[in-house]
């Protein structure tokens, strides 16, 4: 089930990434690269940091085909996607929790400390979006007021806590997905935001 949700998530992430590339007038190659970076970048950054190989897209090259095809499709149906913005926000929330749980599982497999397992989940869930925004010359979504990284942290914390005390990976996965998804969707529905730090004084 987690693998199926992962495929859905990378497809949705690739499609929304294509729109970001389109707003920067990128060509077809650029669209595909932004899609790959967004959908698969979080796991890639995590694996590079922890020396965990092979990369998921090297082991499963079909992920590259799926995300590229999704991105090109999005370019053709961009006007329709605009009308489905809320649906893709929900799919993005799903992707966040799925990527976070997978990131936690990978870190556990290589026996990293709990704090690093939590960090691994957050990186996997959020790094792809940061890379997309940087390449598209935008302030990363993660660094704005949205409850996004914090939702990943909560998801990871629930996964680690349930898995540690109950010993059931399935229960931990379901619990973390439910809590993380609920938090992210509620933050969208009620426009919950993180406090912002605003500083305007010049130092020179």
What does this protein look like?
It is a single chain. With 204 residues, the protein is mostly helical. 77% of the residues lie in helices and 0% in strands. It has nine helices and no strands. Helix 2 runs antiparallel to helix 4. The chain is globular and about 50 Å long. The model has no long low-confidence stretch (mean pLDDT 93).
N-to-C SSE series? HHHHHHHHH
**Mean pLDDT, nearest integer?**
93
Question: How much of the residues is beta strand, in percent?
Answer: under 5%
> What profile does the largest beta sheet have?
none
Give the low-confidence spans: none
Radius of gyration: 17 Å
General shape: globular
- In whole angstroms, the N-to-C terminal distance is 56 Å
Give the number of DSSP strands: 0
Helix fraction by DSSP (H/I, runs of at least 4): over 70%
- Structural class by sheet pairing and helices: mainly alpha
Number of helices: 9
Provide the fold topology.
Elements: H1 2-23, H2 28-50, H3 56-59, H4 62-76, H5 78-83, H6 85-109, H7 114-135, H8 149-166, H9 169-190
Key terms:
204 residues; mainly alpha; globular; transmembrane helix; membrane; cell membrane; Gly_transporter
């Amino acid at each position: 089930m987690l693998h199926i949700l992962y495929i859905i998530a990378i497809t949705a992430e690739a499609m929304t990434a294509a729109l970001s590339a389109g707003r920067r007038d990128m060509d077809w190659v650029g669209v595909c690269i932004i899609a790959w970076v967004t959908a698969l970048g979080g796991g890639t950054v995590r694996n590079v940091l922890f020396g965990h190989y092979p990369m998921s897209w090297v082991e499963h090259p079909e992920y590259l085909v799926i995300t590229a095809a999704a991105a090109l499709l999005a370019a053709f149906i961009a006007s329709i996607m605009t009308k489905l913005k809320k649906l893709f926000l929900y799919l993005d929330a799903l992707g966040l929790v799925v990527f976070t749980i997978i990131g936690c599982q990978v870190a556990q497999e290589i026996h990293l400390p709990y704090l690093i397992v939590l960090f691994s989940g957050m990186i996997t869930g959020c790094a792809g979006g940061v890379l997309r925004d940087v390449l598209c010359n935008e302030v990363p979504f993660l660094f704005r007021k949205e409850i996004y990284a914090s939702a990943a942290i909560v998801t990871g914390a629930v996964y680690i806590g349930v898995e540690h005390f109950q010993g059931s990976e399935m229960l931990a996965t379901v619990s973390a997905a439910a809590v993380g998804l609920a938090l992210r969707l509620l933050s969208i529905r009620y426009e919950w935001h993180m406090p912002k730090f605003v500083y305007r004084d010049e130092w020179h």
